[in-house]
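Q&A log
Question type: sequence-to-structure
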Amino acid sequence: MAFEVRAGRGPIYFDTSTMSPEGVEIMTPTGGWMKLNDTKLKELGIDFFKSKTEWMPQVLTSFGGTVADKDGWSGVPGLFVAGRARSVTPGVYMGGWDTCKTTTTGYIAGNSAGEYVSGLTSAPRFDDAHASGTLDATLSLLGKPGVYPKDVVRLMQELMAPMDVCILKTGKGLTRSLERLEDAKRNILPYMTAPEPHYLVKLVEARSMALITEMYLKASLMRKESRSGHYREDFPERHGDPAWIVIRDGHDGMDLRADPVPLDRYPVKPHRYYMDNFAFPKTSAI
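Response status: OK
Response body:
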C-alpha cells in the first residue's frame, strides 16, 4: 500500500459500507477502550461502519527495552524489569502473549527483587532533598501558560508517521524527522505545562514519547541494513551478523553502539521470523 500511494495510485480506502447489519453489530465494540474510542469518534461525526477510512502509515509497535540478566536485574541496584520493559515480545501476534510474558517475567523479576531486599542489611538512604526538588519542579508547571502535552504527542506522531520514517525508511526521511525533533527539544518541550494535576502525568508521558522517538530515529539511522521488521530502502540487504543497538546516556546526548547477539551461547537457537521470509523490494530510495 505504501508503494501504491507513493506511485500516485492513492489514496486507498477501507470501505465498510457494504457490511451486513449483523456484521456491523458483531464488530461494534461493546466495552473497554475500544468502546471508548468508538463513542468518541461518533461524537466527532466519524462512524467506521458508515464511511470510508483512508489508509495511512502508522507505527504499531517498536522493539527495545532495558538490558537485563535472566533474573530481570538491570545492573542498577534495586532495579528489576519485566514485561515490555525488557522487550521480550517475539514480534508476531500470538493470542494471550501479553499475559504470558507479564506473568512469567513478572514472577521472575518479583522473586529476584524479593531476594535482593531480603539480603540487604539496612535500607538504602532515601534522598529527601532530591525527591523534594524533583516534586517542586514538577508542581511548578501547574497552571502556567505554555504548550500542552497533547500538542507534543501530536508532534511525535507527525514525526513518526511519514512512510520514509516508519515503513520504507530512508536516511533522508529519518534525518528530517530527527532534525525536527531536535528543534522541538530546544523550543517546545521545555515550555510544556499542565492546566491541572491530571495533566502532569500526561506531561511526563509526552516527555517519554519524545525520548522513545529519538531512540527510534537514531537507532534506525545507525542500522544501515534491512532485517526482520526494519526495512531501509537505501540499504535493502542484510549486513553482517545480528546485533543489538545499545543506547546509553552520554555527556552530549545519546551514545549508541552495536553489540553482537551471542547466538553461539544460546542453548536454543532462534529461528528466523516469518517476516524475514519476505522478499524485500529492490527499489531506488528517494
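Response note: The longest strand covers residues 243-250.
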